[in-house]
Amino acid sequence: MKRTSVLASAIAAVLSSVTAVPGARADGPRDARKNDSAAECVAAFDRAQDLAGRRKLTEARELYLTCARESCHTLVRRDCADRLERLERDQPTLIFGARDRDGRDLANVRVTVDGAPLDGQKLALGVPLDPGEHEVWFELPPYAAKLETVVARVGEKNRAIVVTLERASAPSSSGAKTEADPPPSKALPLGLAAASAAAALGFAAFGVAGFAEKNELLDRCAAACSAREVAVVRNRYIAADVLLGVALLTGAAAAYLSLRPEPPRPVVRARLPRLSEL
Length: 278
What we know:
Immunoglobulin-like; alpha+beta; three-stranded mixed sheet; 3 domains; rod-shaped; 7 strands; 7 helices; 278 residues; single chain
């Protein structure tokens, strides 16, 4: 058993034995309250030791304050006061604040540590925390809330945690319409694909017409056809070839623009001031 636990047990035993001495008489409720207070002091001391050993210094501090009060036995009170002084020397304290992007201090910032809101009047005085990792939220409308992960270290005193808050962007009034429209980067590929389809249809139309007229001339006049009739068929084939080329080029361009990766969008990150800049 730890020395402190032995001490607490010994004190409790001494206090109990006093009331159990033969011939001793309890003076009613007054002695009962005294015995209850002594037991409470010993229990607070023992519990505080356990919490301090598990680095739960905030809870341990409250219990040390309980067993260090005047109503406790001198032995318990003296040991509690000594442990409390040692705990306050080890417990880290942090100072919280916020600034805007121009470096101006912001007042009335709401700070929450591990889900528990802090007293705004004490943010600049040094807030005692348990050693270890903590999640700290900074909130001040109309600025965007900011989350910081902070590691508090044993013996660290009045460490400044100052963040930069950015104004929250206002929602767009035409948000619904923007989502319904296709992204601007897809408009050109869609247009080229439509042009390619139209050119392909034109190629098919002129090609079929030229082929049909060519067969008709072969059946009707063969080598005796007039130059004008032959030119009409030739022009239809030329138009079909041109439209085929247009269809292939625009189709290839549409496929390239649709499949290429979009350039990354710029990401804005808030810059936290370094401790040397504070």
